[in-house]
Amino acid sequence: MTNTVIAYHFLASDGTAYGGYRPAPVGEWEPEIPDPVLCQRGYHGSVRVLDALKYATGPILQRCEYRGVVHGGDQFVAVSRRALCRANATALLRIFAVRCAEEALSRLAKPDPRSLAACEVASRHALGQATDRELAAARAAAWDAAGDAAWASAEGAAWDAAVDSAWAAAGAAAL
What we know:
Layout: E1 2-11, E2 43-45, H1 49-54, E3 60-71, E4 76-88, H2 90-106, H3 113-126, H4 132-174
Antiparallel strand pairs: 1-3, 2-4, 3-4
Helix pairs in contact: 2-3, 3-4
């Protein structure tokens, strides 16, 4: 057990933690939970915000001080916690998702322009610079692009399978 750790924890959009528990206001220590056990009882957190995101119940991000920490890999549990700051990270999380999508698209030789446009609209929407209607249209176009790519892939696979079968049949007939 270590004494103090500064780490991250996410809350639901209504400010509650897992199970509906409402944490203390920023700066106040929460009641101690003796003998914490990972995934059962105690105050959970992660040193890296990306690790905390794996366990997120919502978009409210807290940077917290933990005492009586029991380590458990990418997440830990502690006897007590106080939030040092708390913020709604919805826009940040959406922009992060867009950046992940853009990174994936950058690995394609010819990404579909509809997918690229959807990323641009989603990024603007996260910043309040695009309407819900624009986002819905971009989402529909991106789904169409994904469907077209899936059909093209399926057609190519079907063609390859047909050619392979024809060659196999021709080879068998030649025996």
